[in-house]
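ingest -> validate -> predict -> emit
validate: passed (alphabet ok, no gaps, 149 aa)
predict: started
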Amino acid sequence: MDIDDSRFRIAAARRMLARNGCESMVAGHALLEAKSDTKSSELIKAVAADFETSEGRAAARDRLQATLTGSKPGEVKAKAVAAVRDAAALLDAKAPDEAAAFKAWLRHISQAVAEASTEGGFLGFGGVRVSEAEKATLAEISGALGVKG
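emit:
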């Protein structure tokens, strides 16, 4: 599997969902958790470890910027979902034994990010944990990964 390609696809999925600091922290926490979780596959641990390095993060960020620069807001989401779909196909082709676990992990991260902060309301009251737009995006991510949402 091409690690630069993998970094890009994962960064695209994270970027699509990580809109503010709280959501970014949740995604980062999921990467840290994966590294120490005994249930994590070797592929998940390798990707998490790669994101711990400045080189790994820079490579993902640079590829993401190159792909998304000049895109309109609606195009960013479409490109990110396409990147998730491509990552799923790459996993199926190159790491079929670890594909299901890795896809479930990506879906878990997307759910955790969506639940990281409330949407709507006033001063934290009356908001919803996951907005309708986020639910729709989660469904798209699940579909792109080929997993149940």
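Residues 73-94 form the longest helix (22 residues).
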